[in-house]
Amino acid sequence: MPVNPRQAVLVWTIARNAIIDELRRTPKNEALPEGYGAADDDRSKMHELRERISLLPEPDRTIVSMQLEGYSYEEIAESLEMTEKNVSVRLVRIKDKIRKEWT
Prior knowledge:
Arc Repressor Mutant, subunit A; 0% strand
């Protein structure tokens, strides 16, 4: 299955932020775990992200899926009968939830 560029950016952003969070929590004198800097297989991360998205409750799963497919906040809001602000807030909360569970 071809990788959607938006999904790749989302995976990269979540992974980058998780690494930054971990580095902030790691005391300066404590060594990072062995293999920490090793590159992971992007396909396994994409698979894990898709799995995490599939476990979200229905409205959240639909919002994330539509955003990954390239729909604007306005289009998502209109199709789900929400406000654009509500879509925006929910996306931030969903991404935070995924990020926290991923670390």
